[in-house]
Amino acid sequence: MTFVLLLLALVFNLVAQGLLKSGVANLRFDSINFNFIIKIISLPAIWGGGLFYGFSFLFYIMALSRGELSRISPVSQALTTIGIVLISVILFNEPLTMMKLIGIVLLIAGTIIMFL
User: Pick from 2, 68, 82, 84: CA 20 to 30 A from residue 24's CA?
Assistant: First the structure.
């Protein structure tokens, strides 16, 4: 059950980050001013991203209540990082470099070692 909660937290987190990125994709942040803040808070994707982050937080808290922090957190962070790289490449056409691939492999290896 803990793993299911962790996966639900992951899915909601990835959707949240995808929504936030798509919401600000056409904005350029140069400085904080009133107009920029109004633009940000008026975007439905930003609100959706915040809502999905809230759900992710709830499922993550439920997973933490059922397992060890030293196991839950590394697995959650590793899965999130891998998911974000996949979303970045597939949805936002960001490059998948050799360094990213090496990082993912090391991340997976480290997570497995931490989880054992």
Answer: 82
- For the range 86-92, what are the long-range contacts, defined as Cβ-Cβ under 8 Å and sequence gap of 24 or more? 87/14, 87/17, 87/18, 91/18, 91/22, 92/21, 92/25
Shortest CA distance to 5 belongs to which of 64, 49, 47? Answer: 64
**In the block, which residue shows the tokens 């590394």?**
74
Residue 26: how many CA atoms within 13 Å on its side-chain side? 4
Domain edges within the chain: 2-115
Global pTM exceeds 0.85: yes
> Which is nearest to 103 in space by CA: 88, 61, 10?
88
CA dihedral 80, 107, 2, 68 (to 10 degrees): -120
How confident is the model over 20-46, as pLDDT tens digits?
999 988 888 777 888 888 888 899 999
| CB-based contact 105:96 (threshold 8 Å) | no
Cα angle 77, 81, 60; round to 5 = 35
